């Protein structure tokens, strides 16, 4: 498509002078690698489930009631749980119009400001997701399908993914601030 923009060349690298930040970065990187593998398996499983559903309905004229929800749960988990990995690669949508216009120092400041705003939004989203998951668990909420799986499942996947994203963004902010303090 196009060459990497300047703000994506330097991915999150732990600050060597801060062992806590470096340890958090290593732990989150390992967690992200495991989640990416599991998410890939979840996507394959969702494809298999949906293909089975189509074949069952087409060939045997049999009603399917669990396949769509199972696939949606897998897709929700894969989407939200991999958000931190995508952020670690700076792969989320960003406005690149300013990258070429601003100086490298201003681009670093822009990235930190964007990360702070993203952290504020994601923290609120994460908090609301956990409250939603808690309500679903306490109230015993289930989907209104014949299968009736607990709604706490997708809500917990969403909340956990957003929490990991918050940790990733916080790590990026701490790394940027520690690099700035050493300069």
Mean pLDDT: 88
Counted beta strands: 0
Shape: elongated
Query: Major sheet, described briefly?
Result: none
One letter per element, helices H and strands E, the order comes to HHHHHH
Report low-confidence residues grouped into runs of 5 or more: 1-9
Beta content = under 5%
The assigned structural class equals: mainly alpha
- Fraction of residues in helices? over 70%
- Termini, distance in Å? 34 Å
Radius of gyration: 20 Å
Number of domains as seen in the coordinates = 1
Secondary structure tally, helices: 6
Summarize the entry for a quick read.
By secondary structure, the chain is an all-alpha fold.
Write the layout of secondary structure elements.
Blueprint: H1 6-9, H2 19-60, H3 67-81, H4 83-88, H5 104-139, H6 152-182
Describe the structure in your own words.
This protein has 183 residues and is an all-alpha fold. The protein has one domain. 73% of the residues lie in helices and 0% in strands. It contains 6 helices and no strands. α2 packs antiparallel against α3 and α5 runs antiparallel to α6. The chain starts with 5 loop residues before the first helix and ends with a helix. The N terminus is likely disordered.
């Amino acid at each position: 498509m196009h060459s990497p923009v300047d703000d994506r060349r330097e991915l999150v690298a732990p600050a060597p002078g801060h062992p806590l930040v470096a340890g958090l970065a290593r732990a989150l990187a390992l967690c992200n690698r495991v989640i990416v593998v599991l998410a890939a398996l979840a996507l394959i499983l969702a494809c298999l489930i949906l293909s089975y559903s189509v074949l069952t309905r087409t060939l045997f004229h049999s009603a399917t009631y669990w396949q769509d929800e199972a696939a949606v749960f897998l897709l929700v988990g894969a989407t939200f749980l991999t958000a931190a990995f995508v952020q670690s690669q700076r792969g989320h949508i960003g406005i690149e119009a300013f990258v070429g216009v601003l100086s490298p120092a201003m681009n670093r400041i822009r990235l930190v400001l964007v990360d702070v705003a993203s952290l504020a939004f994601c923290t609120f989203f994460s908090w609301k997701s956990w409250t939603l998951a808690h309500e679903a668990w306490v109230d015993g909420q289930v989907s209104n399908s014949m299968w009736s799986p607990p709604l706490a499942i997708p809500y917990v996947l969403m909340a956990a993914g957003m929490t990991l994203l918050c940790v990733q963004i916080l790590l990026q902010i701490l790394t940027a601030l520690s690099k700035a303090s050493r300069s």
